[in-house]
Specification:
By secondary structure, this protein is mainly α. It has a domain at 1-36. It has helices at residues 2-7, 14-34, 67-71, and strands spanning 77-78, 81-82. A two-stranded antiparallel sheet has the order 1-2. The protein is flat. The two termini are 25 Å apart.
């Protein structure tokens, strides 16, 4: 549980840890019950609505703003870009 919380960058109390361990155990138990269901005569499917290609066509619009307008909300720029705090050092960490 500590490893999962660490990956999610969560700090959990020992009380929360006990609660989450029980919940996770319940989920795993439920999923194992699903393996007992006979699906040998069930045809695989990736969707059930029958709809196909419900996406609209991409349209290019020239409704953007200029670079100067985009940078107008900040005082820190360099060569036409926003200056932001460093998040990686030279080692990549």
């Amino acid at each position: 549980m500590e490893h999962v919380a660490s990956l999610a960058k969560l700090k959990i109390t020992s009380e929360e840890k006990s609660k989450y361990i029980k919940q996770l155990s319940d989920v795993v138990s439920y999923i194992s019950e699903l393996s007992d269901v006979d699906t040998s005569n069930v045809e695989p499917t990736s969707q059930t609505t029958g709809l196909t290609n419900v996406f609209r066509e991409d349209l290019v619009r020239n409704e953007g703003i200029s670079q100067n307008e985009a940078l107008s909300g900040t005082e820190e720029t360099h060569n036409g870009y926003f200056v932001v705090p460093l998040i990686l050092d030279k080692k990549g960490t």
